[in-house]
Amino acid sequence: MKKTAVVSIGLCGLGTVGTGVWKHLARTRAELERRLGARLVVQRVAERDLRKARSAGIPASRLVSDALDVARDPALQIVCELIGGTTVAREVVLTALAAGKIVVTANKALLCAYGPEIFAAARRGGGHVFFEASVAGGVPIVKALREGLVANRFPLIYGILNGTCNYILTRMEEEQRPYAEVLADAKRLGYAEANESLDVEGWDTAHKASILAYLAHGRWVKTGQMLIEGITKITPTDIANAAALGYRIKLLAIITRDFDTNEVAVRVCPTLVPRRNVIANVNGVYNGISVTGDVVGTTLYIGRGAGQDATASAVISDIADAVTLLRCGKSMPTPDELPRRNGLKLSPLARMQCPFYLRLEVRDQPGVLARVATVTARHGVSIESVLQHPSPHPRAASLILTTHRSNEHALRGTVSALQRLGCVLDEPLLLRIADFAN
Amino acid sequence: MKKTAVVSIGLCGLGTVGTGVWKHLARTRAELERRLGARLVVQRVAERDLRKARSAGIPASRLVSDALDVARDPALQIVCELIGGTTVAREVVLTALAAGKIVVTANKALLCAYGPEIFAAARRGGGHVFFEASVAGGVPIVKALREGLVANRFPLIYGILNGTCNYILTRMEEEQRPYAEVLADAKRLGYAEANESLDVEGWDTAHKASILAYLAHGRWVKTGQMLIEGITKITPTDIANAAALGYRIKLLAIITRDFDTNEVAVRVCPTLVPRRNVIANVNGVYNGISVTGDVVGTTLYIGRGAGQDATASAVISDIADAVTLLRCGKSMPTPDELPRRNGLKLSPLARMQCPFYLRLEVRDQPGVLARVATVTARHGVSIESVLQHPSPHPRAASLILTTHRSNEHALRGTVSALQRLGCVLDEPLLLRIADFAN
Q1: pLDDT digits over A393-429, tens only?
Q2: pTM reported for the whole predicted model
Q3: Nearest-CA distance from A307 to chain B in Å?
Q4: Which end of chain B is more exposed for a tag (fewer CB within 10 A), N or C?
Q5: Using the beta-carbon criterion (under 8 Å), do B150 and A35 form an inter-chain contact?
Q6: CATH top-level class for A350-433?
Q7: What's the topology of domain B142-305?
Q8: Which residues of chain A lie closer than 8 angstroms to B35, CB-CB?
Q9: How far is CA B75 from CA B11, B14, B336, in A?
Q10: Of the candidates A267, A291, A156, A113, which has an alpha carbon nearest to the alpha carbon of residue A202?
Q11: Which of the 8 DSSP states describes residue A229?
C-alpha cells in the first residue's frame, strides 16, 4: 500500500458508541490520516433507525439498513461491530471475518460467549479482531496485556470493570442510602440501564473478566465456569461494617493463576478491599485494574469504564491499529491470536481461599453466638473478628464475623448449616475479603 | 519473512538493565517466539567489564568490548542501547540507525538531549526507535500515548516519574525525618545513586517529561525550556503543613497544552497534590501518571518506575514490537515518527498560573505579617490562608501562606521583594499547588 492509500471502513450500529465513533472520527480524521499515512473513509453505515442516522448526520448515500450488507461489502477493509448483543452481532462478525476483513468490536458479551469461534474464523479468513473498547472503556488495558506486558506471566489480575456498580456502591457509601434508592437515581441520571441486571448481577463484569483471562492466559473461561455474584444484597450497613474494619466494598473481577498447578480461576464478587489499596480508591463511574506480572511487578490502570467518548477513543485506536496492520500487508497475527496449548486447567471454585465476611441476622437471645461459633468451628473455619449491631428485625441482632483465610467450600457448608439453626433469620450474606496488597 | 525467521539482536551494556534483559529474555524466549512466530537470538553483547559479562553468563563467542561493533554489525536487526549517558550511547544509536536497524533504548537523557537528531536518523535510514523503558519503567505509558490514546489531544499530562524522589518524600512523611537523613538511608538501600543529583534536582523527571511531551505534542522541549526544581529544600515541616492543608507533596512533571493559543508548557517541581487525588496516593518507588485526553477523559497509569525487572519488561516488549515490525517488512513509520508542523509554541514560564504555597522564616516581632501582606498585595497576589509555627531559628516564626491562583511572575516578584525585607530570614520556599481534580 502506498502512502496515499485509502482505507474503507464500515460502521454497524449507531447506538451510543457508534454515534460517538462517527463523531470523533470526523473530528480527528485529519490528524489520524497524517499520522497513519492513509486516508480513512467511513464508506458504509448500517442502522435500521433512520432518525438516528439522520440526527448523526450520516449521508443517505452511505446508509444501509442491513448490517450483513456491510459485513459482506467487498469494498470495505475494516468492519466495526457496534450493534451489541450476541445474535446479529455474531453473524456480522463471523461474516466479515470469513471475508478476510479486520473486525473492530466493543462487544464483551459476544467475545465471552463465542470467543473461540470468532478467533478461529479470524485465523481461517486471514483477518483480525481488535477489541480494546470491550474492557474498561478508553483505558488501553487490552493493548497493555497484548503488547506492553508481553514479557510477563500473570499470577494476579483484578479490578473494577463495571462503572454502574461502582457508581452505585460509591453513592451508597457517600450517602448511606440503600441499594434500591441509589439504583433508581442512577437510572434517572443515565448511569444505569432500564434493565440493570446485566450490570448489577455481575454478568457484564464476568464478560470482561473472560476477555482479560483470555489475553493473559490464552484460554476462554465461560461464565458458567466462574463464581459470579452481584451487588444487590449489599446494604449500607455492610458498607459501614466494612469501613469499621478498614475496607471498602467493590465489585471485583479476580483472575488468579497458579503456575505450580497450572490452574486458572475467575471470580466476580463484591469484595472487601483494604482502604489503603489504590483500587479501593477508584470511585464513581471509574474502572481500575491491577495487573501483577512476574517480571514487571504490579501495574495499575484507571479511567472511565464506559460512556460514548471513552469507548469511541478505544474503537478509534483499534481502527488505527487495523490501518497499520493493513499497511503491513496484514500478514501478522497479533500475539494472542495464536492458539496456546499449555494444558491450563480451571481451578475448582470450591478450593478458592481467602478471608471472608459473614453477616447474620440472629434472634437476640442468650447462647446464639455460642451456637454460631460451634457451627463455624465444626467446618474448620476460624473466626478473626466479631461485631454485633441492632438488626432491622425486632428482637434481633446483626452479627458480623470475619474469618481467617478459609476455603469457599468450608464457608458454603458453614452458611448452609447456619441457615438450619432456628436462631438465624434471613439468608446470611457472605462476602470475600481481598488479601492482596496492591 | 517466514514464520521460522530468525531475528538477531545486539545488546549494548550489561549494567542493571542490560543484565535484566539478558536474564528475562532467556527465561521468556520460548513463549515469546511462539507468540511472535520468529526465533530471537541475542547474537552480540557489548561490555567492557569482563567480570560483569562472566557473571551474567554471556558466552565468550558473543561478547565484544566495543558497542560500536554491535551498532555496525550487518548481521543484527535490532540493537538495544542500554549503556546510558549521552556520549557513547549517542554514537551507538546513530550508527545503528544509519545502518537501518531498529533501536531499542531506555535512555531518557539521550532522547531528551538529542531526540530530533535521533528520530531524523531513523527516518533517513528507514529504521525505528522504541523507548518504552525510558519512562515509568514497565508501565506501558509510551505505548498508551503512541497507540492506545491516538484519538486524543492532551490538554494535561502530569505525574510522578522518579521513584527515588517519591521514595524519599514518602519516607520523610511517614517518619517525619529530614531530607538528608532519608537520602543517606536510600543510598544505603540502593534506592538512590551514589551521585543523587540527577534524581533529586529534578533532571531525570525533566528528561522523562520531555519524552511524554514529544509523544503527546510532537515537539521536543529541552530542559532549558522548562521550569525545573528538585526536592532538596523540602522539610518535614513543609510536608506536615501540606498535610494540615489537605495535600501531599510530590515531585510532579506537568505538561499542559492550551489548544486556543496552541502553546505547551513543561514544568517539574515539588507540588502540593490534594490527598483525595489518586496520584497523591502513589507512594514509595512507584510512578504514577495522569493523562487527560479530550475524548477519553482522564486515565491513570501506575507501577514501579525503575529497577532491573520492571525496566527489562519494557525493553522486551519493545523487542517484541520490533520483531513484529520486521516481520511486516519494516515499512511503517510509528505514528509519532512523522514530523508535525503544527505551529506549536512554548508558553512563557512566567505566565503559568496556579495557587502557591510560600514558607517564610520571619522575626517574631509585631507588624511582620502586615509588612508581608503589603508586599503580596503590591504584587497582585491574593492570600488564601495563613499558618504560623515556631521556627527552628530563635525568636523567629515560620509563616506559611497559600495564595489564590496567581502567576509565576507575580510570585517570583513577591519572593524577591520579601527577601529584601529585614524581617525575612533565610530564602523563602515557594511551592506550587495542583489545582486539577484527577
Answers
A1: 888 999 999 999 999 999 999 999 999 998 999 899 9
A2: 0.95
A3: 9
A4: N
A5: yes
A6: alpha beta
A7: Dihydrodipicolinate Reductase; domain 2 (3.30.360)
A8: 150, 335-336, 338
A9: 13, 20, 28
A10: A267
A11: -
